[in-house]
Amino acid sequence: MECTQDDIPFPATTSWQPPDKSFTKVIMKQGHGLVKPNEGATAVVQVEPLAGLYHMDEKVIGYPFQKEVEICIGESDAELAELFDICIESMKAGEVSEIQIPDVTLRKHLEDKLQFDRIPGDDADQELVAKFKIELKSFNRVEEIWKLSADEKIDIAEHQKVKGTACFQNGRIVAAAKRYSKALKFLITVGNKQELEELSETMQDKYSAMKCSCLLNLSACLLKMKRYDSVVTSCSDALNIDASNVKGFYRRGQAFTRLNEFDQAKQDYEQALKLEPQNKAVKEEMDFLMQRKKQHDEKFAKAMSKMFGGPINN
């Protein structure tokens, strides 16, 4: 079903924020109808930068400025694309809104890519935001995830996984993690027993292999993001699928090492070396574990010595 633009303006101003308050949407012209676009929907939009403190390159938005363009919601990996997608998903056909992105959100997503249009003044009330006008001209929704067949969900998950790997190879670690998480979202919904049993044996094998791979790829992203507890969870889930996966033991061992859980890390590395005795990366991590444990023990002994006024005997 296509929803098209309504030319009747709406006089009242209404604002909305997502749960994380990462931006504010202010409706400039109300749309029509009850339905809104969802993730995966195609939409015709026009984005226009408004006067603000920051200058934004359209590459970090993911959509070109000041021209009508058809997009697929959720398919851009630009730094701020997710914010714009969330905003568009809250809009109705024909709606025109202003999205106001505060300084704290911009710095979180862009870090050193921010550019000032003008130098901030001394006025404490000066608004540190980037502002854009978004017009949603029309859209076509896609089927909700719960209506998709198991084969369709697996195909979409595979698409997300491929996109995630491309992001990872280009150093876009956060974008890659989001892609792998999206892939897992679709795979998890295939997880009920009846749906799995209805799959062919080939598709069941593909499902298990892809889920394990996405979990391990996500763990690689989380390691770089230093989210070590989440690495342990992802690797443990992968090992529940494939109990002899060397990468699962290796990456979980890395996370345990950095969490100072040395005994558990050692167990994981030993298990990985049982499976692949000549694995150079695992051997190097085992050496790093021993060095880190020694440093930790020495630091602990020194702290105890200061506390109790004398050396600690080994």
* Topology, number of strands: 9
- What's the order of the H and E elements? EEEEEHEHEHEEHHHHHHHH
End-to-end CA span: 75 Å
Low-confidence stretches: 5-11, 116-125
Overall pLDDT metric: 88
Given the structure, what is the number of helices? 11
Helix content: 40-55%
Query: How much β-strand is present in the residues?
Result: 5-15%
Architecture overview:
The protein is built from eleven helices and nine strands. Strands 1, 2, 3, 4, 6, 7 and 9 form a seven-stranded antiparallel beta sheet that branches. It has a two-stranded antiparallel ribbon with strand order 5-8. Helix 4 packs parallel to helix 7 and helix 9 packs antiparallel against helix 10. A hairpin with a 7-residue loop joins strand 2 and strand 3. By secondary structure, it is an alpha+beta fold.
Question: Can you give me a brief rundown of this structure?
Answer:
This protein has 314 residues and is of the alpha+beta class. It contains 11 helices and 9 strands.
